[in-house]
UniProtKB/TrEMBL annotation:
<dbReference type="Pfam" id="PF00107">
    <property type="entry name" value="ADH_zinc_N"/>
</dbReference>
<keyword id="KW-0560">Oxidoreductase</keyword>
<protein>
    <submittedName>
        <fullName>Quinone oxidoreductase</fullName>
    </submittedName>
</protein>
<feature type="domain" description="Enoyl reductase (ER)">
    <location>
        <begin position="11"/>
        <end position="325"/>
    </location>
</feature>
<dbReference type="InterPro" id="IPR011032">
    <property type="entry name" value="GroES-like_sf"/>
</dbReference>
<dbReference type="InterPro" id="IPR013149">
    <property type="entry name" value="ADH-like_C"/>
</dbReference>
<keyword id="KW-0521">NADP</keyword>
<feature type="region of interest" description="Disordered">
    <location>
        <begin position="309"/>
        <end position="329"/>
    </location>
</feature>
<dbReference type="InterPro" id="IPR013154">
    <property type="entry name" value="ADH-like_N"/>
</dbReference>
<dbReference type="InterPro" id="IPR047618">
    <property type="entry name" value="QOR-like"/>
</dbReference>
<dbReference type="InterPro" id="IPR036291">
    <property type="entry name" value="NAD(P)-bd_dom_sf"/>
</dbReference>
<dbReference type="InterPro" id="IPR020843">
    <property type="entry name" value="ER"/>
</dbReference>
<dbReference type="InterPro" id="IPR002364">
    <property type="entry name" value="Quin_OxRdtase/zeta-crystal_CS"/>
</dbReference>
<dbReference type="Pfam" id="PF08240">
    <property type="entry name" value="ADH_N"/>
</dbReference>
């Protein structure tokens, strides 16, 4: 028997239960991983709350972890028992001591990267990779706006933007978070609890505004994101931390200057084993070179059994950077 988190009803963090289960044997193309560190992602709260539908209940939760391969299915190639690995985009159930994962979602972990570093950066780093390198190719000298810049995805984006020589203007919910985003490489910050986003963007760009906005906050910032764009600018709306953007009249894009909007997801950008290898090689080299650091504070490493408290903390907006669940802690 092993331990995992499951939920039998959608709802708040209180629906998360710590239970025993019998891990099934891996199917032919699956790898069984003994998780050592589990990544907590905001999307996990959308699954739990019902914002994103779950196929059936009771359900496991979580899609990202790092650990050691304990078993392999008969059709698995290139991965063996004992390998150190990291995965993201698995079926729900990574909040667990043991999880079976399709081989195409797994990357071998370089020795220089710890399980905790990997689980704190894999899904979020792959996300920053596709946002900054594929959805739009950010260039040296380019100025753009990135919301929630002191969050898990946000702090990696600040560092990646700096490495590219770009000027990331990061929005944050407190002065403390502004400081953290600056240290990570943000060129400028806007505390959107007390500053006017659009006015500050204009001020920082000598009245021009920006050609590119990344918005994972959603409902609360959508209009201000559009208003921060210059004509023909691009809004990349990639999350709903404050709730989903709904009921948009496309005419608003004409009125605000022939704007572009895209709503991308990691699953649509990284689907094959080759795509995952290209993306993870680039991410790992950024981490190995020190360009991207992913230190998780002790306060944001929660025992697996305390997933409820971890979700309460993440949703209270009090975290900075990534948070982890640690099995057996
Ligand atoms: P974060 O660590 O960034 O946590 C979310 C942050 O959003 C909070 O810390 C908070 O920062 C900000 N926020 C703004 N408004 C609210 C609100 N009303 N309630 C809660 N938080 C709010 O999470 P992640 O790094 O895990 O994910 C960041 C975003 O990226 C999420 O929206 C997620 O869904 C999205 N995402 C999208 C992917 C895709 O492919 N489309 C893939 C991965 C992540 P502050 O206090 O500074 O405002």
């Amino acid at each position: 028997m092993a331990k995992r988190i499951q939920f039998s009803a959608i709802g708040g963090p209180e629906v998360l239960q710590y239970v025993s289960f019998q891990p099934p044997a891996p199917a032919a193309g699956e790898v069984q991983v003994e998780n050592r560190a589990i990544g907590i992602n905001y999307i996990d709260t959308y699954m739990r709350s019902g914002l994103y539908p779950t196929a059936s209940l009771p359900s496991g939760l979580g899609t990202e972890a790092a650990g050691i391969v304990s078993k392999i299915g008969s059709a698995v190639t290139g991965i063996k028992v004992g390998d150190r690995v990291v995965y993201a985009q698995s079926a729900l159930g990574a909040y667990s001591e043991i999880h079976n994962v399709p081989q195409e979602k797994i990357a071998l972990l370089p020795d220089a990267i710890s399980f905790e570093q990997a689980a704190a950066s894999f899904l979020k780093g792959l996300t920053v990779y596709y946002l900054l390198r594929l959805t739009h190719t950010v260039k040296a000298g380019e100025t753009f706006l990135f919301h929630a810049a002191a969050g898990g995805v946000g702090l990696i984006a600040c560092q990646w933007a700096k490495a590219l020589g770009a000027k990331l203007i990061g929005t944050v919910g407190s002065d403390e978070k502004a400081e953290r985003a600056k240290q990570a490489g943000a060129w400028a910050t806007i505390n959107y609890q007390k500053e006017d986003i659009v006015a500050r963007v204009k001020e920082l760009t000598a009245g021009e505004k920006v050609g590119l906005v990344y918005d994972s906050v959603g409902k609360d910032t959508f209009e201000r994101s559009l208003d921060s764009l210059k004509p023909r600018g691009l809004l990349v709306s990639f999350g709903n931390a404050s709730g989903p953007v709904e009921g948009v009249n496309l005419g608003i894009l004409t009125q605000k200057g022939s704007l572009y909007v895209t709503r991308p997801s990691l699953n649509a950008y990284i689907t094959t084993r080759e795509e995952l290898k290209t993306a993870s090689d680039e991410l790992f080299s950024m981490i190995a070179s020190g360009a991207i650091k992913v230190d998780v504070s002790e306060a944001q490493k929660f025992p697996l059994s305390e997933a409820r408290r971890a979700h309460e903390t993440l949703e209270s907006r009090s975290t900075q950077g990534s948070s982890l669940l640690i099995p057996g802690k």
